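Hi C.,

You asked whether I'd gotten around to modeling the 330-residue construct. I have! Everything is below, sequence then structure, no commentary in between.
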Amino acid sequence: MLDLFFRKYAWTATLLLLFAAAWLCARTVNTVVAAVIRPRPAVDLSALPSAAARPVAPPRLDSERLYALVGQKPPAAPAAGQEAGAGAQPQGPQNCADRNAAPVKSGLRAQLVAAVISDHPRSSIASITDLNTRETRVYGIGDQLLGATVLSIERLRDDRDATGSGVKVVAIVCDGGQKQYVDFEPGDGSGAPPPRPLARPGVPEEAEPAGPSAAEGVKKLADNRYEVKKKFIDETLSNLNNVATQARIVPSFKNGVANGFKLFSIQPGSLYSAIGVENGDVIQRINGYEMNSPDKALEVYQKLRETPHISIEIERNGQVIRKEYNVTGP
């Protein structure tokens, strides 16, 4: 049955196959011929007009955004009619009472060594060297420095800093009615008093009045209770270099954290011996302030000038001992 069907319609299948083969050949030939005879596009670039060079604007510095980036304010514009340069009027002497007056570099032969700026400006202190005598002392607000009065310890803008955001720590003083500053660079001596003359052989040098000794300034009332004369405290705090030579003081650490200052080699008859401090003691707190850094120690020393009572916590042989001192006298 199937053989009869294929014999009857075999010519139809052959015709369809021939038609499909002819169509595929025609399409192939058409595609090849079209690819051969297709024209290639060409652009004559020489005929195009040349574009003019785009102008490049010069770089512009946005000073307001730059000052905001460094956290500063741009300087105020000069007032109308004010001229700078050779024709400007020289600035007159600054008035010490004017808080807005800009200080100038001091001519005192003094050099700032260290400073502590407290949250309370009146408690700020500075360590300054007298270049005439090479003596370094700690000065507080209101103290006398080579005839000048210390007004404040502040941060001023450093004009030599290229970014305009640099600051430096200075001691502001009032010298001859002019506001000046003492920084870490030595003064030229233009405003300093004449140096003290050297002693001549055979001529006795006039001795300065000596203050009370440690035994006279400190009186023991009971165990860990003492009475201290205020004059003795003032004279002691005004010459910390002398106090530093009476014992060896080193930072103390516990579990890798600073916990005070340890004292060794305490001299007999010294301040430390008079107030009951022994070799190996660690001074941890004074009036509740932790003594964990040199800056904190300098700040506490300055505050002791005005307190009527002093409390010191000492660690001795692993135990904490509290010593109380009442300040008496004018």
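If it helps when you're writing up: Confidence is low (pLDDT under 50) at residues 84-90, 192-201, 205-211.

Thanks,
B.
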